[in-house]
Protein: Amino acid/amide ABC transporter ATP-binding protein 1 (HAAT family)
Organism: Jezberella montanilacus
Amino acid sequence: MGDIILQTQGLTKEFRGFVAVNDVALSVKRGHIHALIGPNGAGKTTCFNLLTKFLAPTRGKIHFNGVDITGDRPAQIARRGIIRSFQISAVFPHLTVLENVRIGLQRPTGLSFHFWRSERCLDQLNERARQLLDQVDLGEFADTITGSLPYGRKRALEIATTLAMDPELMLLDEPTQGMGHEDVDRVTQLIKRVSEGRTVLMVEHNMSVISKIADEITVLARGSVLAEGDYASVSRNPLVMEAYMGTTQGELEGAHA
Ligand SMILES: Nc1ncnc2c1ncn2[C@@H]1O[C@H](COP(=O)(O)OP(=O)(O)OP(=O)(O)O)[C@@H](O)[C@H]1O
Ligand SMILES: [Mg+2]
């Protein structure tokens, strides 16, 4: 096990004969920010669904910390410390920002619900929730109704509620999607900050984000691994450029700016 926190072998997912993920060998190093990139339809989200057991693989193995987790149920995966960021739809719009993080802390896979239920500990719960909000620069929004937060801040809250579950491996699917420049920069720095002491596996289309924070990149195309390496090697790889041609070529070019 050692350095490698997550490893897949021959990971494959077929949908009625269509191979969405094809024989993928993924190796994620402990402490890394590992990016999964590739053109639309490459199989990135399907990969995430396989890792979190939202989908069962057709073939292949998944090891986490050296343990075969291929047969685990989603709840077991979460208990092991693999947490996928909750979508915005999973936060409660009518509650305050602080309340949403507290709920995250009270999830079964977070700190023990019964522990927090005792009066004595409610203060600690609030304190921990505020720490998490500070970590994602949402301290000043603690008492804001979540539904009225600007979009980029909602995504930051999503990261805070994920952090509340103290993930060892955090999976982020397009954390900067739909954001303006300023929010993208803030969330990029935020991911870098919260990755300390954890491992992050993220799907990201924005190559500028990847060039700034990814330690390792795996490029998927049509379900298969096309290339792997750091940003410098992957971005110059002719196979990668070709895969992006005509689809999201602009994103690769944009990264050089
Ligand atoms: N439940 C499903 N049934 C059938 N086909 C599916 C299913 N889920 C995904 N696919 C197909 O598998 C392929 C990979 O889809 P996936 O969503 O994993 O791609 P992606 O890399 O996340 O793309 P994007 O960048 O657009 O998010 C696509 O062709 C998609 O249509
Ligand atoms: Mg996707």
About this structure: Residues 85 and 198 are 14 Å apart (CA to CA). Residues 15, 18, 20, 38, 40-46 surround adenosine-5'-triphosphate (ligand 1) (CB under 6 Å). The radius of gyration is 19 Å.
